[in-house]
Each structure stands twice: as structure tokens, then as C-alpha cells.
């Protein structure tokens, strides 16, 4: 594939690759939103418990996903160089490490209630979270393997199958949730356990679909031929880069998880409003994540052909596109906050008005939040594309845990600003990360170096 030569060509290439990825991220987000919507209609306490449980699951998932994210730029660069053995090696070892991490994390999910109580969560909510995770936790194994295959396929620009597989999973999840949470269509009423069963089923089905696609459409890569044979060099490369990406993701995911914990200290209604607001913000954020993934692939391919001009021009186009959508998001958050938050609540819920008030205030802060979060994730995607992962890890730890988390606690608890203060702390941490990572990329992009196995 010849590289695009002008801004219009870069924009076209980015959209062709990015739109299916955006769609797949939106579909994946729809899975979580359906869980939140249906549990919010089912029972507010059930929703609060699953917010805790799913946050705990997400922390482990996002750390484990670091190895999948490492596969993406490495496969993109190897593909551009015509190195089929290289891309097969890193993908296989990405699957190996992801499987090991998932199995190692499983006990933490199965026995999560004591951990949640230890960090100050209510005993009843902690038990609900554990009930959910004792089923949903098994889904971590297929979920991480799916992430590796999605990265492999996306790097090769086979993004449509990623989109359709995720859309099918979202539809399946909706039907299963409706049946198993509420006991519809003759199914038992299982509440949070029904939501957990639905999650495991759809993650497993998605894995099967992607494995079949990879074997039939890309047989030349022989991903699973002699799969049991280790490749220590490739394993080391994926492990090093994946660990750095995983720790970077952990720093950010941990920031949001800690904000959830603080919300739980403030009160159940604040925790519910926070969970709803996070779902809304995350839905819009998936557009930026999809663009960031596309930027990672394009940057990885530019690295493979040592195209510094193409790298910088493509990066500028990606950032401009992300900025434009960010502005649209701000308008929506400020214009219709009640309508969005209200979707997640039963109209007859006695505490609906109080939750709406809290959620409305959080979405006002989210208008600022969206812009800085978009800037940092785009810079992060570009840095991953040029296989620069150590500096972003350091920046993330500094921005989110040395600055962001203390500010969230100070403003939310010490200064008694409540949920709004907690979210303002998040904004401060994300803004610093965005600044540091953007400066790093534009410095780094002027001296890219080819990396290969």
C-alpha cells in the first residue's frame, strides 16, 4: 500500500481505517451501557454493586490489554516491511501472555468482596459486586484474547470484521440481558448474575468468530500452527512493551477506579450518578479511542517505511479530527445533560431527581474533561505507533497519581466539593498528561528509528 502524500489523502486513509474501529469501540461500549441501563431499571443497589464490580474487572482487563496494544504497532510495522514471520511471532506471543495474565488475575475476581471492603466500600455493595464477578470474571480469559486478535486484525487493516463481530456481540448481549436480568421469555430472573452470564457468553462468542476469521481469511500467517512452541525473543519484546503500555493504562484506569471508590465514600447516589456519567463520557470517548487506534496503525506503518514526513502530517490530521469531534461533544454535554442521565433511570425511581442533579453537574465538568482526555489518548496512540512506550508510562504515573488523584481527593473530600470536585481533579491530571505526551510525540517524530525483530 503506497503512503498518502497530502492532507486529503491522509484524512481519507485515517477515516477508512478509523471509522470501523470507532464503530467497534462504540459497539463495545454499548455492551456496557446496556448493562448499566437494564440494571438501573432493575434496581439502583444492583447497579451500584455492578459499578464497583465492573470497575474492578476493568482495571485488570486494561492492564492485561497492554500486551494486545503492543501487538498492534509491531504488526503494523512488520506488515509494512513485508515481514510475515515477524508479525506472526508477536501475535502468538501476545496471545500467550494474555492467557497467562487472565488466569493469574482470576482469583482476584472470584474473591473480590474482601478487597472491596478493605478499600472502604459498603459490605452489601461489595457482596453484590462479588456475586457479579464470580461469573463475569471467567470472561477475562476470552476478553483478553479477543483484544489481541482485534489488534492483529486492525494492524492489518481488516477492521470491518472487528466492527461486525463487536456489533453482533452487542446485540446478543441486549437479548441475553433482557432475558436473564428480568426473567423474560421464560428465563429465570437472575439480576446481576444474569448480566454476568450474558457478558461471558458474548466474549466467548466473539473470540470464536475472530479465530475462525483469522484462520480462513489470513491462512498464510498460520497463527495457530504449532501454537504451543515458545518464541522467547518475541515474547520478551511483547512483554516489555506490553508491560509499559499496561502500566500506562493502569495509571489512567486506576485514576478512574479510585474516583469510583471516592464516590462510594461520598454516598450511594453519588456513586450511581458517577457510574452513569462515566458511561456517557466513555461513549463519546470511544470515537477518540478509535481514531487513536487508527493513528497507531498509520504511525506504525510510517515507522516501518521510515517516513518521517508522512508520520507528522498524518498525526496532525488525526489530532485535528479528534479536536473537531471533541467540540461537538462539549456542545452535547452542555445542551442535554438531563436527557442523557435520565435514560439510565427508571421514571418511577424515587431518587431520580437527586441522581439527575448530581449527574447534571458531573456532565458540565465532563465538557472540559472530554477535550483534555481526547488530546492525551491521541498523543498516546501516536507514541505507541512509533513504539515509544516508556516515557508515556512515566508521564501517566506522574499526571494521574502524583497530581490528579490527590487533587480529586482534596477537592472532593477535603474541600467538600463532592462529586464535582472529584471530577475536576480528573481534569487536572488528564490535562497534564495531554501536554506532556503531545510534547513528547512531536519531539520524537522528528527522529523515528526503524525497529524490528
Structure notes:
There is one protein chain. This protein has 453 residues and is mainly α. The protein has one domain (7-447). It is 83% helix and 0% strand. The protein is built from 16 helices and no strands. The protein starts with 6 loop residues before the first helix and ends in a 9-residue tail after the last helix.
In this structure, how is the largest beta sheet organized?
none
- pLDDT average, as an integer? 86
Low-confidence stretches: none
Assembly state: single chain
Compose a concise summary of this entry.
The protein is mostly helical and 453 residues long. Helix content is 83%, strand content 0%.
How is this fold's topology laid out?
Blueprint (H helix, E strand, L loop, with lengths): L6 H36 L1 H21 L1 H15 L3 H27 L2 H6 L4 H14 L3 H16 L3 H24 L9 H26 L14 H35 L1 H37 L3 H28 L1 H6 L9 H34 L4 H25 L3 H27 L9
Helix pairs in contact: 1-2, 1-8, 1-11, 1-12, 2-4, 2-6, 2-10, 2-11, 3-4, 3-7, 3-10, 3-11, 4-7, 4-10, 6-9, 7-9, 8-9, 10-11, 10-15, 10-16, 11-12, 11-14, 12-14, 14-16, 15-16
Structural key phrases:
453 residues; 83% helix; globular; mainly alpha
Amino acid at each position: 500500500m503506497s503512503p498518502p502524500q497530502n492532507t486529503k489523502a491522509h484524512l481519507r486513509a485515517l477515516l477508512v481505517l478509523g471509522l470501523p474501529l470507532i464503530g467497534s469501540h462504540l459497539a463495545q461500549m454499548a455492551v456496557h451501557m446496556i448493562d448499566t441501563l437494564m440494571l438501573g431499571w432493575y434496581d439502583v443497589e444492583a447497579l451500584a454493586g455492578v459499578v464497583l464490580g465492573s470497575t474492578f474487572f476493568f482495571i485488570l482487563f486494561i492492564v492485561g490489554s497492554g500486551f494486545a496494544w503492543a501487538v498492534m504497532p509491531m504488526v503494523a510495522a512488520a506488515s509494512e516491511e513485508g515481514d510475515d514471520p515477524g508479525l506472526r511471532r508477536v501475535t502468538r506471543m501476545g496471545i500467550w501472555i494474555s492467557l497467562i495474565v487472565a488466569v493469574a488475575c482470576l482469583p482476584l475476581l472470584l474473591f473480590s468482596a474482601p478487597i472491596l471492603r478493605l478499600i472502604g466500600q459498603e459490605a452489601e455493595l461489595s457482596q453484590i459486586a462479588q456475586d457479579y464477578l464470580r461469573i463475569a470474571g471467567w470472561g477475562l480469559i476470552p476478553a483478553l484474547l479477543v483484544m489481541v486478535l482485534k489488534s492483529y486484525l486492525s494492524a492489518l487493516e481488516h477492521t470491518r470484521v472487528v466492527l461486525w463481530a463487536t456489533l453482533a456481540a452487542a446485540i446478543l448481549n441486549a437479548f441475553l440481558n433482557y432475558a436473564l436480568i428480568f426473567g423474560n421469555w421464560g428465563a429465570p430472573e437472575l439480576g446481576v448474575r444474569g448480566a454476568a452470564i450474558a457478558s461471558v457468553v458474548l466474549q466467548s462468542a466473539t473470540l470464536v468468530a475472530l479465530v475462525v476469521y483469522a484462520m480462513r481469511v489470513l491462512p498464510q500467517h498460520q497463527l495457530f500452527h504449532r501454537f504451543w512452541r515458545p518464541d522467547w525473543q518475541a515474547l520478551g519484546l511483547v512483554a516489555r512493551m506490553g508491560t509499559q503500555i499496561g502500566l500506562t493504562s493502569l495509571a489512567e484506569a486506576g485514576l478512574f477506579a479510585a474516583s469510583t471508590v471516592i464516590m462510594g465514600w461520598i454516598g450511594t447516589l453519588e456513586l450511581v450518578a458517577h457510574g452513569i456519567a462515566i458511561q456517557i463520557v466513555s461513549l463519546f470517548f470511544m470515537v477518540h479511542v478509535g481514531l487513536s487506534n487508527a493513528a497507531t496503525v498509520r504511525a506504525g506503518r510510517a515507522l516501518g517505511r521510515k517516513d518521517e514526513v508522512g508520520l507528522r502530517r498524518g498525526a496532525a490530521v488525526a489530532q485535528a479530527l479528534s479536536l473537531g469531534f471533541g467540540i461537538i461533544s462539549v456542545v452535547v454535554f452542555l445542551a442535554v445533560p438531563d436527557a442523557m442521565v435520565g435514560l439510565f433511570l427508571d421514571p418511577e425511581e424515587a431518587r431520580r431527581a437527586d441522581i439527575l442533579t448530581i449527574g447534571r453537574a458531573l456532565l458540565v465538568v465532563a465538557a472540559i474533561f472530554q477535550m483534555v482526555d481526547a488530546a492525551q489518548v491521541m498523543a498516546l496512540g501516536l507514541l505507541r505507533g512509533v513504539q515509544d512506550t516508556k516515557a508515556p508510562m512515566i508521564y501517566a504515573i506522574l499526571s494521574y497519581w502524583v497530581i490528579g488523584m490527590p487533587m480529586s481527593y482534596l477537592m472532593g473530600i477535603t474541600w467538600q466539593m463532592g462529586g464535582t470536585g472529584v471530577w475536576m481533579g480528573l481534569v487536572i491530571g488528564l490535562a497534564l498528561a495531554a501536554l506532556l505526551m503531545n510534547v513528547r510525540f512531536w519531539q520524537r517524530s522528528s527522529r523515528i528509528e526503524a525497529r524490528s525483530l
